[in-house]
Amino acid sequence: MMKKSILAALLVFACVSSAFAAVRTVTLSVPGMYCAVCPITVKKALDKVPGVSKVHVSFEKKEAVVTFDDTKTSVKALEEATFEAGYESSLKAPGAEGKTK
Ligand SMILES: [Cu+2]
To answer: For residue 42, how far is its CA from the centre of ligand 1 (angstroms)?
Structure first.
């Protein structure tokens, strides 16, 4: 009886922790892109990061929308990847969208 409840508790814990291990989508601001080839370089750099499943880079918006598994990589690793490729990037704060310059 006791053992079973411990097992049940472990199972619940496993479910909870896998719920935290979520696929996240973040928007990175990449202000250093100045021509149409830049987004391709940025996309390639982000695609190479393990755990990244989807990358969409917009030259017009100067941003990269990245979908990744946060158990395999982090926003910091993504920023480092673009930096390695020659572009500084930073996480766009939610709500910064549509902000006038
Ligand atoms: Cu360029």
So the answer is: 10
